[in-house]
Design brief:
3 helices
């Protein structure tokens, strides 16, 4: 039973990082194209929008770095679910 709980935990964390990568991608597009259809997302956190504007174009690079990091973590953890040591014992 513990193996299944560990497997579920890894899957949930992997899904969390996949969602974070998508959110970063949406933020990048919203930063690249101000005034587009994605502009209403800044109503969720107007302080973040102001901070990104203060940083300038460097904020896009920052978000690209985070997006790549989240996607790499998601990929590695989803790979570890498929190659988990306890699954090879069957």
């Amino acid at each position: 039973m513990t193996e299944q709980r560990a497997l579920l935990g890894i899957k949930l964390l992997s899904a969390f990082f996949a969602i974070e990568a998508v959110i970063c991608l949406i933020t990048i597009v919203a930063l690249l194209f101000p005034g587009s259809a994605l502009d209403p997302i800044w109503r969720l956190n107007p302080d973040a929008h102001a901070a990104f504007q203060k940083i300038g174009k460097l904020s896009i690079l920052l978000m690209v770095g985070w997006c790549i990091s989240f996607k790499m973590i998601h990929y590695r953890w989803s790979l570890s679910v498929r190659r988990a040591p306890w699954r090879q014992l069957d």
